[in-house]
Amino acid sequence: MKFDVLTLFPEMITSALEGSIIGRAQKEGIIEINAVDIRDFSKDRQRHVDDYPYGGGAGMVIKPQPVYDAFKSLEVKENTKVLYMTPQGRPFCQRLAEEFSKEEEIVILCGHYEGIDERVIEEIVTDEVSMGDFVLTGGEIAAMAVIDAVSRLKPGVLGKEESYKEESFSDGLLEYPQYTRPPVFMDKEVPPVLLSGDHGKVDIWRHREALKRTYEKRPDLFEKYVLNTDDRIVMEQYLKNKH
Ligand code: ADE
User: Fold this and answer.
1) Are residues 174 and 168 in contact, defined by beta-carbon separation less than 8 angstroms?
2) Which residues line ligand 1 (CB under 6 A)?
3) Same fold, 2-151 and 170-242
């Protein structure tokens, strides 16, 4: 899968994603990250890409022409998704990551300053995507989060030991707590069932912990989760003991 990132700071993208799992996936050719410098498509001698906003106001706006030319230089297929990272977009989530991971190639446009001329956004962007209700200095960090979350869903990117089958959100619940050696740390014991060697019991315990955790930490997710009979009994018991 290929990601083309249109940015004023290509080295931010390439340097941050060259290490660890995503770096390995690039070396293995499972994913390709092509950071394109919008400034290379400036038509002026000083390589300017921004200008004052019409109507006045603080800050500068990225001109439409260099963005459009940078995009055209990619020569992507007609239906390629073009994401624009902006706080005005759809909130990014695991479901969107899964949707994007089905694509062969994705273009990601990163804004800076006061934004990008609206006309080029209308012309090339298919999806506006937000990292959350806060404002970053630019879209690069948001783009990296999208690339990371999407890439790890591609077959071969995660090793067996880094499996994503049982992680938070994959089944609508947060992940159960994890423990490793030593068996006692600061007087706290590892839950005995995890040392029992009984995988059936471990699975049941983990599912119950995931339920309780989701209830406590993400009541919004818990509300959407469909409880089975056993889940309902577990939660009734949990709430009775809590009060
Ligand atoms: N650019 C600036 N802030 C952003 C956000 N919250 N999400 C995505 N892109 C952004």
Assistant:
1) yes
2) 85-87, 130-132, 134-136, 139, 142
3) no
Question: How far away, in angstroms, is 85 Cα from ligand 1 center?
Answer: 6
Closest atom of ligand 1 to CA, residue 135: 3
Listed by start position, the domains of the chain span 2-151, 170-242
Question: What are the structure tokens assigned to 119, written together?
Answer: 């006309």
> Which of helix, strand or coil describes residue 213?
helix
Fold of 2-151: Alpha/beta knot (3.40.1280)
170-242: CATH topology: Trp Operon Repressor; Chain A (1.10.1270)
Which residue, judged by its Cα, is nearest atom 2 of ligand 1?
A: 136
Task: Answer whether 0.85 is exceeded by the pTM.
Answer: yes
Mutate to test the pocket of ligand 1, among 85, 88, 146 (most ligand atoms within 8 A of CB): 85
Query: Residue 38 and residue 53: Cα distance in Å, rounded?
Result: 19
pLDDT of residue 165: 65
In tens, the pLDDT along 5-14 reads: 999 999 999 9
CA of 147 to the centre of ligand 1 (A): 14
CA distance 6 to 144: 12
